[in-house]
Amino acid sequence: MTTQTIGILGAGKVGTGVARQALLAGYRVLIAASGDPKNIDLIISVMAPGAKAATAAQVMEEADLVVLSVPLHKFRTLDPAALAGKHVVDTMNYWRDTNGDMPELEEAPSSSEMVLAHIPGALLAKSLNHIGYHELELDALPAGTPGRRALAVAADDDATRTMVLDFVERLGFDAVDAGDLSNGLAFEPNTPIFNGSYDKAGIAAELAAHLTAERELEPAV
User: Fold this and answer.
1) What is the pLDDT of residues 31-43, one digit of tens each?
2) Domain locations in the chain?
3) Which run of H or of E encompasses 30?
4) Which of 103, 155, 188, 198 has its CA 20 to 30 A from that of 113?
5) Which tens digit of pLDDT belongs to each residue from 146-202?
6) Cβ atoms within 10 Å of 219's Cβ, excluding its own
7) Which among 171, 153, 172, 168 is positioned nearest to 112, based on CA atoms?
8) Which string of DSSP letters, residue by residue, matches 106-151?
9) CA distance 83 to 79
10) Which class is domain 5-217?
11) Tens of pLDDT along 68-87?
């Protein structure tokens, strides 16, 4: 499966940062925000020249991979029907100062699983949340470069996982398969992976440590 068009929901720093790297990697990039695309034309022309302002509906129709880069609390505005069957990558994080109290988080093990509960038909992956938008450009390196920074990818759907692993590689990072979407908990805020910068072996070791700790917390049968 070849990804050609990236559709980004969110025209902020993360969304435009991902857009710039995606353009460098040769993707066609659509960016949508709430409202008329004309309202973000100038922002996109400055922050991600080469990308195209679009409606959310156009992103859903034309994108091979949809990137969620809005403040997490806005996940409630996502259209479950429009995202059903779409390959989606969640780059969002929970920040109390920005997102406020989110009671839904108390009912889900991780923020991505909370998002998936709202858009259950989507084929959701978690990645690109544990790197700063400015680091997407500063840290990107060609494949095979020693010490190349690695990023984790968690997903339940195999095709989505493969697609996002390839996307991360093309953006300039070693992609590490983190397994199921629930394992995205290992690289949410305040985890070692989120707080650090690792090569492929380093992230693999941290993921293994997380899974070991999770198993130790499971009640004995």
Assistant:
1) 999 889 999 999 9
2) 5-217
3) strand 28-32
4) 198
5) 999 999 999 999 999 999 999 999 999 999 999 999 999 999 999 999 999 999 999
6) 4
7) 153
8) GGSSSHHHHHHHHSTTSEEEE-SSSS-TTHHHHS---TT-TT--EE
9) 6
10) alpha beta
11) 999 999 999 999 999 999 99
Which residue is listed with tokens 């309202």? 39
Determine the 3-state secondary structure of 92 from DSSP: coil
Residue type (1 letter), 70: V
- Tell me which amino acid residue 216 is: E
Per the CB < 8 A criterion, the answer to whether 147 and 199 are in contact is yes
Inter-axis angle of helices 158-171 and 13-24, to 10 degrees? 80
- CB atoms closer than 10 angstroms to residue 74: 14
Of 29, 1, 61, 12, the closest CA to residue 171 belongs to 29
pLDDT at position 220, please? 55
Centroid of chain to Cα 167: 10
